[in-house]
Amino acid sequence: MVQGAKHMKSSNAADNGGSSPQPKPQPKPKRRRKRLPRWADRLITIVIILIGVGLMTWPWILDRLEASGVFNQISTVSSTVDALSEEERERILLQARSYNEQLSGEATELPADQIEPYAQQLIFDRDPMMSWVEIPSIDVSMPIYHGTSEEVLMAGGGTPGGASPPPTGVGHLEGTSLPVGGASTHCVLTAHSGMRNLSMFDDIHSLEPGDLVLLHTMSKTLAYKMVDSEVVLPEEMESLTIEPGADRVTLVTCTPYGVNDHRLLVHCVRTKYNKKDVDKQKSLADRHWGKREFAVLIVVVAIVLLLLDIVIHAVRKRRKAKASA
């Protein structure tokens, strides 16, 4: 029996090839991935934030550059007008008033044969800018040119003598009253909206009753307040006619963005100019916020969050150093 058992053990050993059981292979220890240094992690975060902020604010930056060009042109033309003699300014205004009176069918201050044609109205020192419009509550200031052609709306119609074209502007609709105010007048001003990198009339849809629209013509400031708005088809322009005795301005732009098959009309009526009201609507607290204001807000929030992260990390590091001391 003992010999039989020994024989069985030797047989099993022979069957197993005479080898002992192999140990199971141990898994290789995983290498711990090295974390980026804190400064590198923060640098990447800063770069990502700056890229995002840059993409958000780039249209606003371009718009500000455009606004700077507009401001320079307005300042130049305003200086030219201020340098005119009182008699010359009155002559130009008399021509414009007579033109408007002729449009409304009223008796004109000048004989009909002495009234200059549209293209020669409100022209001084060969500059194509006839006036400029300011809308304090949406931070818009733009020059006004004759006509509403694409050339006018995108480049102001060019300047005499082959000079560089002036900044993008507002077109005055020919056949409507010139921007000098007065009874039985209706001045219609048009500009693009939804243009890439240019705000122009983008934000006039946010105007509310009481918001001011200012026309600056021949050193005079005419104030109008918004009363209502409407969206119409391009051919539905009945509300742009002259109302006897009224002094009105209407702002016109295409809508909706990207489609532009309708027109947004913002109607305004003459009101008394009050500098305090203008300053209040210019303030950030009372201004209607558009993409420019939101872009600035995003930049400020991004900077605050970044500074907060730096402060929190510094506090934690100090506490850790104290605890280990």
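That was protein one. Protein two is written in the same sequence-then-structure order:
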Amino acid sequence: MANPVMNSIVKDWSTQSTTPAGYPEMPGYQPASAQAHNPYVGETNPYGTQQGVDYSGQPIYGAPQGNPTAYPAPSGYEEQMASYEAMMNAPAADAVDRGTMTYDDVVVKSLMCFGLLLMGATAGWLTGIVTLGAAMLVALGACVVTLGLALFIRFSKTVRPAAIIAYSLIEGFVFGALSFAFELMYPGIVVTAVLATLVVIGTTLAAFTMGFVRNSSTLTRVAGIGCTAFFFYYLVTFALSVTGLVDMTAVNNTKIFFGIPLGVIIGVLAVFIGVLCLVRDFDAVKVGVANNVPEKYSWLCTFAIMTDVIWIYLEILKILSYLMRRD
């Protein structure tokens, strides 16, 4: 399905306010420039005791400068001032103190979600070894569940970490069952697809990090339109295949240019759209960290990147199947 466009993140983090030191503003907070002016700053307190007059038999605050009988500092005053100076000299709050998203947050959550994805894939693969028919039947139902979870995560007004974790596990089962089915028909295809996916992701990340590719409004629009178009394309072709109205296998094997099957051309285009989505979501992480968005949005960034990787892997798997079929 289409990878979710995270406009809601930008809208939410644009309303965040912080103090000059970097901490989130608390209710009732006012900066120093907005606080009420003290009319007695720099002036003599008109209600203070007259200088040189002692009504209590004790030295007074208002004694002239240099008077050895000046009132001593209250007990504990030095300790309080030392503590205050220590707080003022302390370093400003970092991202962890402020509860904002960091690259580490995205990396840790990505490792966790991809670990759950692999756990689910292992379960799907082993189920396929025991009974492939049952595994594919369960995978079909799991596809419906993951589609519902993805829509729920995308359109929910709050971040849903539990739904993202569940999506990782269930999508992993589909991932493993399909991979096993392809491996039975084309031995060695899974290892090749995994390596090709890692190369595509690594190249895209390196190009983005070094500035060779950048996100833009045009790239975001093309990625969004491409994802939506492929979502409806696969939905329609699946319906046509199930009903038997069109033999999509024959259509995808149709030679178009230089003997290249139509399925390969569509697959390459789909991988290209997946790479655009990956660039867009890498940029979402970069912008989120730079704008100090709340830490919870690292879950959405992880979800977006994970769906990109799944998309690219499955498309590469299909491309390889068409090429091996020709052999």
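Confidence is low (pLDDT under 50) at residues 1-5, 48-56. Keep this in mind for the problem set.
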